[in-house]
Amino acid sequence: MIDDQTQAAEELQQRLRQTVIVHDELPTEIRTVAGVDVAYEQNSNRLVAAVAVLDVASLQVIRIASYHGEATFPYIPGLFSFRELPAVLSALDQLPVKPDLLVCDGQGLAHPRRFGLACHLGVVTGIATIGCAKTRLIGEYEPLGADRGAYQSLVDEGAVVGRALRTQTGKNPVFVSVGHKVSLETATDWILRLTPTYRLPETTRAADQAVKALLRAPR
DNA sequence: GCGACAG
DNA sequence: ATCTTGTCGC
């Protein structure tokens, strides 16, 4: 017996998945790339969402936008976007200019209904997005090379839904998938460009750092 | 029925 | 996600 909330959420995913653009349709000139993340407070529903905008050339943070609020949806694998999207959208609203590309801390098409957080955020904002998760949700993949840049297709039900990509030699891979308006090939290139030193993209590292600092600071 | 299961 | 110190390894 799945409740109405779950039922409605899954139906919305089935409907919105039809609007996802899986080929390159990003701005001609990508000058800014942003990372988004959310942190939660223990023993409460308080949360903080942040968007960290980086300059593509220097990979330096040029702006941080945030939002403090309450979690309104539980964490359910497969329905993750319904928990984080509202707060993330509120944080994005604080930005005077939209970033050219968004990197999400979660899946894009590598989702049971092919509509993870990256796809959801992309279609509702119209911004090009990439999903880059630390762990896998669905799919299988063959062993990949140990060198940075090595990758293997993430396959689910016979379809390539993303890639297990090694961003740092000797470290565990990240899971890259199409979000919206970015092909898997281009998404892979961007993730490698955003991981010159660490396993995770500088964008998600900056957003993660911002969100944790804001959670501890007073409001 | 038994696991698996983004953050 | 969050609770958490030291510690093993390069």
TrEMBL record:
<dbReference type="Pfam" id="PF04493">
    <property type="entry name" value="Endonuclease_5"/>
</dbReference>
<keyword id="KW-0255">Endonuclease</keyword>
<comment type="similarity">
    <text>Belongs to the endonuclease V family.</text>
</comment>
<dbReference type="InterPro" id="IPR007581">
    <property type="entry name" value="Endonuclease-V"/>
</dbReference>
<feature type="site" description="Interaction with target DNA">
    <location>
        <position position="75"/>
    </location>
</feature>
<keyword id="KW-0540">Nuclease</keyword>
<protein>
    <recommendedName>
        <fullName>Endonuclease V</fullName>
        <ecNumber>3.1.21.7</ecNumber>
    </recommendedName>
</protein>
<dbReference type="GO" id="GO:0043737">
    <property type="term" value="F:deoxyribonuclease V activity"/>
</dbReference>
<keyword id="KW-0963">Cytoplasm</keyword>
<comment type="function">
    <text>DNA repair enzyme involved in the repair of deaminated bases. Selectively cleaves double-stranded DNA at the second phosphodiester bond 3' to a deoxyinosine leaving behind the intact lesion on the nicked DNA.</text>
</comment>
<feature type="binding site">
    <location>
        <position position="105"/>
    </location>
    <ligand>
        <name>Mg(2+)</name>
    </ligand>
</feature>
<keyword id="KW-0378">Hydrolase</keyword>
<feature type="binding site">
    <location>
        <position position="37"/>
    </location>
    <ligand>
        <name>Mg(2+)</name>
    </ligand>
</feature>
<keyword id="KW-0227">DNA damage</keyword>
<keyword id="KW-0460">Magnesium</keyword>
<keyword id="KW-0479">Metal-binding</keyword>
<keyword id="KW-0234">DNA repair</keyword>
